Amino acid sequence: MTSPASPAPASIGPVICVVGARPNFMKMAPILRALAAHEPPIPALLVHTGQHYDHGMSHQLFIDLRLPQPDINLEVGSGSHAVQTAEVMRRFEPVIDEHKPSCVLVVGDVNSTLACTLVAVKRNVPVAHVEAGLRSYDRKMPEEINRVLTDQVADRLYTTERSAADNLLREGVAPERVCFAGNVMIDSLLDSRERARSAADTLRQHGLDAALLQHPKGYGVVTMHRPSNVDDAVTLRGLLETLAMVARDLPLVFAMHPRTRSNIERFGLGGLLDPARVAVLPPQGYLEMVGLMGGAALVLTDSGGLQEETTALGVPCLTMRENTERPITVEQGTNTMVGRERAAILAGVADILEGRGKRGRVPEYWDGHAAERIAADLWPWLQAGGH
Ligand code: UD1
């Protein structure tokens, strides 16, 4: 992990760092800082594919995370998986041709991650994938396809937990390609905690009564946007009814993804959540989310990132999915998988409210220094030509 004694080549091309969707931004912010702080500095170029484009889904997070403005924005916007992926590929290829990067660095598992990886490897540009090796073993999740394919063709694979290397080796990946670096998302979390906005301020900013948070049991935070939970009317209705039942015991703050909001409208389910018990907010900034989660009695979610953030914060998390690609959050952290069945969700909430929630511990290398470890490993690898 140390730089070789040999002098650096006169110049190396920039590392093209790719972001596209909301969960990418908190991963990339510490990486960009670590590349700049490396001695010698590692040149970087930030490309935003524009997969997410709303102020609340993108721009606000750049501000909160102190991300520089992207050098290039491909402005692909929304579309079907095929259209979105193809459009990113079509627009990213000329960027590679123009800037001659030493490597393309991708994070996470969104469509932009896979699209840019495919373009780069076909142009013989090495690819580094941060958050490699996570597997839900559920091929119906678009993210799982993105993870498997990205890891097969990427050259350097940075993992967040040790089980990820086992997954990669099972898929025939050579162990030399894998580096256990830790969790860059937790770098961002630790960096931002002191700047987090209080939950009361967040509610007030949206004209909502912060007294909701003063319940003797506290409050719960909800996020939910997985297609498997929100794209089918019957499933979505069932989950909203369950949340309404939870809210009778524990007030909820629901930061609602645009996909969820539009499906609730489309299916006519808007009346299921009592505004006196459930504060529905638009997608929140990063500092708002950290503040909301940090003060919560529990978090109910289907997000990947929140499973990890709650583990790092020591806040009990109930994940409304059948599987997780982040098993360490269950084995060591505060996460419990409750699926989508009402009884299991209500039992999980009751356990936590009765003091039986998981305390958990913070996993290895979720220590705020993952991005530094990546930069330290990347530099000699780049000097060797990415092989
Ligand atoms: C994507 C990721 C998912 C991640 C999620 C976080 C993939 C396959 N999925 O899902 O892993 O957890 O981001 O949000 O890449 N929309 C807006 N404004 C925006 C962006 C999207 O209104 O800025 C709406 C559009 O109606 C769009 C829909 O949200 O069609 C879905 O957006 P999309 O990027 O396709 O997928 P996500 O569900 O956000």
TrEMBL record:
Question: What EC class is this?
Answer: isomerase
Q: Which domain of life is it from?
A: Bacteria
GO molecular function terms here? UDP-N-acetylglucosamine 2-epimerase activity
The residue ranges of the UDP-N-acetylglucosamine 2-epimerase domain are: 41-376
Alphabetical list of InterPro entries matching this protein: UDP_GlcNAc_Epimerase_2_dom, WecB-like
Q: Where are the transmembrane segments?
A: none
**Family stated for the protein in its record:** Belongs to the UDP-N-acetylglucosamine 2-epimerase family.
Q: What is the name attached to this protein's record?
A: UDP-N-acetylglucosamine 2-epimerase (Non-hydrolyzing)
